[in-house]
Amino acid sequence: MKPHFSLFSLTRRAVLPLVAALVLAGCGSLGNSNNSQPTTGDIHVMTSGGFTAAYNDLRPEFERSSGRSVKTAYGASMGNAQDSIPSRLARNEPADVVILARPALDDLVAKGKVVAGSQVDLVRSAIGFAVRKGAPRPDIGTVDALKRTLIAAPSIAYSASASGTYYETELLKKLGIEDQVKPKSKRILSERVGTVVARGDAALGLQQVSELLPVAGIDYIGPLPAEVQQNTVFSAGIATASTQPDAARQLIRYLNSPAAAPTIAKTGLEPLTAR
Predict the structure, then answer these.
(1) CA 36 to CA 155: how far, in whole Å?
(2) What is the pLDDT of residues 257-273, one digit of tens each?
(3) What pTM was computed for the model?
């Protein structure tokens, strides 16, 4: 089952850039009244995979409307991989905005890496499965069908971030098939699960839907059944080491605006738009 996204009229699409510009103009008034913060310079963003497709589509409009250049580093929400967001922050890589799974963001707040109270929920993300393009599409429509599919699969790839943590610590236990399935499951570091499946290194791949959809060479087969689905909220926060917190706040407000919602929805995410 493929995700269904709302279609917007040509008229609505035509006014979205104008709405975005108005949002950004309003955001520009936020921050220090003494104008002590620089109004130019790069904004540094670290984003995890769940929000990457939406972010990559939204960034150009923000840059055009704000006149600010945005530099981006990508990495997992959690884990010790060299390019994970916690590892990047531990190395003191430049960061103004971080975007990752909410539990991981809150952990960074507790560790003093993200400003307390700066967290803004952006999207809700579901977990899904994919197979190599053209391969038989197994049934995952019910919990029983999912169990049969996982038991029959010769190999399974899962991420080292939020969806993979759920798979290896909770999902297999819930299904009662951990001993049968975990030994043939491979945790993927610093690479999209879909990419591993596309080149034939795993027969079945599990990851956030928004991370599977953009990958060439795979067929998305659907989400986890509702009874065992785990929706992850991806949120943004301001790094405590940020040199441009006002600009960071402006970008976060844009990503959470109604103007950004249609683009976000097209990537398989549910926008949690500010009201």
Answers:
(1) 56
(2) 999 999 999 999 999 99
(3) 0.80
CB of 51 within 8 A of CB of 260? no
Question: What pLDDT is recorded for position 40?
Answer: 63
In Å, what is the CA distance from 185 to each residue of 147, 152, 154, 158? Answer: 14, 12, 9, 7
Cβ neighbours around 63 below 10 Å, total: 14
- Ordered structural domains, the chain, with CATH: 10-125+233-271 (3.40.190.10), 127-228 (3.40.190.10)
Closest CA to 254 of 8, 22, 10: 22
In this structure, the strands spanning 43-47 and 97-101 are parallel
For 85-127, write each residue's pLDDT tens digit: 999 999 999 999 999 999 999 999 999 999 999 999 999 999 9
Structure tokens at 194: 């879909």
Tell me how far CA of residue 160 lies from CA of 20, 108, 157, 186, in angstroms.
34, 18, 10, 10
Question: What pLDDT is stored for residue 19 in this prediction?
Answer: 44
Helix, strand or coil for residue 250?
Answer: helix
Task: Check if the beta carbon of residue 37 is closer than 8 Å to that of residue 245.
Answer: yes
Low-confidence ranges of the chain (pLDDT < 70): 1-40, 275
Look-up of token digits 């197979």 = 131
C-alpha 32, offset from chain centre: 30
DSSP helix/strand/coil, 149: helix
